[in-house]
Design goal:
InterPro entries: N-FG_amidohydro (IPR007709)
Organism: Flavobacterium rivuli WB 3.3-2 = DSM 21788
Largest sheet: 7 strands, mixed
Strand order of the largest sheet: 1-3-2-4-7-5-6
Number of helices: 7
Number of strands: 7
Protein name: N-formylglutamate deformylase
Distance between the termini: 40 Å
Structural class: alpha/beta
Radius of gyration: 18 Å
Pfam families: FGase
CATH class: Alpha Beta
Strand content: 5-15%
Shape: globular
Length: 265
């Protein structure tokens, strides 16, 4: 299986690349056989159906890149040297996770050693990041600017990260450093609705993808949007809900509309 899948725009291209690094569910057999069976069958930390939720994006001219492998094979949104993203006491899953977000072990035997981790970096991690770099360079060459929009979701409550329920929407821009003020304002203003509550850079301010690719001084911007799975799934957070998804899609469509206007101004 390919490391990633790219969906090209079906409308005139705009300067936005949408990345979905955590919606993949595939495990190579040699890895799956070492995981606890329930973890391999239902990798709970997956950003379930995020690629389906955003499948309207190509019709807006947006290029989409989606990872095919589970984040438990390798987490594409972590520092390649496993430097922690946060230091506030929450459970931090590493580049190659050994536990889920609540600290439960994933492997029933033979946790990956340094050699295996290096192999996974070479086989899965580097190709995804190199492809994003290429897409951004091509987009900047064409438009003079580019935006990487990293799309994520999470259960409404994850005690290993925080005891309280998460907001519906969390915009991350690494404390204002991964995108220009105009780009950030366009996204943040579009997220202000009566139906959903939004937070800015708390409790997530963008993972390694946002932090490493966002270089607004070079006209390359990056934003992360984390959202509660209840926005587009049912109350059990296991099944896709067309009704819920339709409502949040209206917000997302407006976010992209405002970002396109700002980038093309």
């Amino acid at each position: 299986m390919d490391v990633f899948h790219i969906t090209q725009p079906t409308a005139p291209k705009v300067p936005i690349i949408l990345s979905s690094p955590h919606s993949g569910t595939f495990f190579p057999p040699e890895i799956a056989s070492r995981l606890f069976p329930d973890k391999a069958e239902t990798p709970d930390d997956t950003d379930w159906f995020i690629d389906r939720l955003y499948d309207f994006a190509p019709a807006m001219g947006i290029t989409v890149i989606k990872a095919n492998y589970s984040r438990w094979v390798i987490d594409l949104n972590r520092d390649p040297e496993s430097k922690p993203l946060y230091t506030d006491g929450r459970v931090i899953t590493g580049l190659v996770p050994l536990t889920n977000f609540n600290g439960e072990p994933l492997y029933q035997a033979s946790e990956p050693d340094e050699h295996e981790i290096a192999e996974r970096i070479h086989q899965y991690y580097i190709p995804y990041h190199e492809q994003i770099e290429q897409l951004l360079e091509q987009t900047k060459t064409q438009f003079g600017t580019a935006l990487l929009f990293d799309a994520h979701s999470i259960r409404k409550v994850v005690p290993g990260i925080q005891k309280e329920a998460f907001p519906d929407l969390i915009l991350g821009d690494n404390d204002g450093t991964s995108a220009s003020a105009d780009v950030i304002k366009a996204a943040w203003d579009a997220l202000q609705t009566d139906k959903y509550n939004a937070e800015h850079n708390h409790p997530f301010k963008g993972g390694h993808i946002t932090r490493s690719f966002g270089k607004p001084q070079n006209n390359v911007h990056a934003l992360q949007l984390e959202m509660a799975k209840t926005n587009y799934m049912d109350a059990s957070e296991t099944n896709y809900s067309e009704e819920n998804a339709a409502h949040i899609r209206e917000v997302l469509t407006n976010v992209f509309t405002q970002l396109i206007k700002t980038l093309q101004a």
